[in-house]
Design a protein that fits this description.
It is a single chain. The strands form three sheets. The protein has a seven-stranded mixed sheet, with helices on both faces. The chain has a four-stranded antiparallel sheet with strand order 10-11-13-12. A two-stranded antiparallel sheet has the order 6-7. The chain has a domain of 242 residues: Type I PLP-dependent aspartate aminotransferase-like (Major domain) (Aspartate Aminotransferase, domain 2, 3-Layer(aba) Sandwich), CATH 3.40.640.10. The radius of gyration is 23 Å and the shape is globular. Helix 9 crosses helix 14. It contains 14 helices and 13 strands. It is α/β, with parallel strands linked by helices. Helix 6 links the parallel strand 4 and strand 5. The structure holds pyridoxal-5'-phosphate. Pyridoxal-5'-phosphate binds next to helix 3 and helix 4.
């Protein structure tokens, strides 16, 4: 058999045309948006204690539909999941200087939401298997100042929520789950995002379902529910008339979702399970095709869990292969493969944490006396996350494309071609 020359060495590309972009929006969403636009009422929120404090008819219909789907007592929509995370940290009663434990492998907003209330993010390392926060590292990072855990269901696989809730119970902490990448994902038969004190999902354009921008908070706690709604909608102006006496963090925002987005969200929610199943089918094909390549570790799904494959996470055994990740990625990209990500994130290494400059220029909150100890953000505090980011991890962004079977076959072909000629890189 003659071996086809790699594209990087001047041979033909394996993938010659771009895959179809992922698009979850159909006729139902277009019709729903049109009906709202024709009504002329694009938002009905009022930032005072009034029936319209809770938003317009579509916002409320969407929230009731979310409660039903996610099987929770309360859902609160917001204009982004970043807003949702900020509202969640405020609602659980975090005080300035409190420590909240968060993984470094997530989108920056998981940690920024903590800083927003002048609380201190403390980074715990991740598990190699699922890339989620490691409960052992959480325990090792608990101090007398720890008040909460911000867990993330990264890439679409649930974190070990049972272990985290157990730790939280023991140390009297609250748990928030950031399930932006993991809607319709199951952890022992239960939907991720619904198992902490408060959790939720992103409705940003890049997520499984979207409304352009938006987010959904879910909780079974009546008090957190009320506080989320207050923070969403100008809390400070509403508390007196509503008779709210606990004024902590009753600093309100405009985190309100519009009626057009809510109407689209109602339609998107109906399609969520189907979209996730399609993604899972494509990922399974990919796993079948790639599973015999040496030195390539494919996504692991823990027993009793499901995976939504926001990302298709892989680990290279670069020692065994004798080739760097960068060379492998460059060769795959030359074959026409787009959406590869070498490394993911190490939030503790962002300039804001390295220089400890957040609010103002003088190091607030770290240099203020609300911060009770010198929190370490040095390289080395999260060795697994750092090694994966620097050396071994490659992700394939499954969220970018509507992958057909032929597309998956081409991806597999590109990997096989490169793997056969790794020694030439
Ligand atoms: C997308 C994302 C967010 C932010 O959501 P937005 O709706 O874009 O504000 C937060 N956390 C994680 C893990 C995400 O993937």
């Amino acid at each position: 058999m003659t071996i086809e020359k790699l594209a990087i060495h001047g041979g033909p590309k394996t993938i010659t045309k771009p895959f179809k972009p992922y698009n979850s929006i159909g006729k139902e969403e277009i019709d729903a948006a049109k009906t709202v636009v024709e009504s002329g009422v694009l938002s009905k929120f009022l930032g005072c204690w009034d029936p319209d404090f809770y938003g317009g008819p579509k916002v409320q219909e969407f929230e009731r539909a979310c409660e039903k789907y996610f099987g929770v007592k309360h859902a609160v929509t917001v204009n982004s999941w970043t807003s949702g995370l900020i509202a969640a940290v405020g609602a659980i009663g975090i005080e300035p200087g409190d420590e909240v434990i968060v993984p470094p492998w997530t989108m920056c907003a998981s940690a920024t939401a903590i800083l927003h209330w002048n609380a201190i993010p403390v980074f715990a390392d991740i598990e190699t298997e699922t890339f989620n926060i490691n409960p052992k590292s959480v325990e090792a990072n608990i101090t007398p100042y720890t008040k909460a855990i911000m867990a993330v269901d990264i890439f679409g696989h649930s974190c070990d929520i049972d272990a985290l809730m157990e730790i939280a119970k023991h140390h009297n902490l609250k748990v928030i789950t950031d399930s932006a990448q993991a809607p319709a994902v199951y952890n022992k038969g239960r939907l991720t995002g619904t198992l902490a004190h408060v959790g939720g999902y992103s409705l940003n354009y890049h997520k499984h379902i979207h409304t352009g921008e938006g987010g959904i908070l879910v909780t079974n706690d009546d008090e957190i529910f009320e506080r989320l709604q207050l923070i969403r909608n100008h809390a400070e102006a509403v508390v007196k008339d509503k008779g709210v006496t606990n004024l902590s963090n009753m600093v309100g925002h405009n985190f309100r979702l519009g009626e057009i987005e809510a109407a689209i969200g109602i339609q998107q929610l109906k399609k969520l399970e189907g979209f996730v199943t399609n993604r899972q089918d494509a990922a399974e094909c990919l796993t079948k095709g790639l599973k015999n390549l040496t030195g390539l570790r494919l996504p692991i799904i823990k027993t009793g869990y499901t995976h939504a494959y926001y990302m298709y996470p892989m680990i290279l055994d670069t020692n065994l292969l004798g080739v760097s990740r960068e060379k492998i990625c460059t060769a795959l990209e030359a074959e026409g493969l787009t959406g590869l990500v070498a490394g993911y994130a190490n939030i503790h290494l962002l300039p804001m944490y390295q220089k400890k400059i957040a609010y103002g220029s003088r190091g607030f909150p770290w240099t203020s006396d609300i911060c009770k100890r010198d929190v370490n953000y040095d390289k080395g505090i999260c060795p697994i996350a750092e090694r994966l980011h620097d050396k071994d991890y490659i992700g394939y962004e499954m969220c970018l494309h509507q992958l057909e079977k032929e597309d998956v076959n081409l991806i597999v072909k590109a990997f096989e071609k490169v793997w056969r000629q790794l020694h030439t890189l």
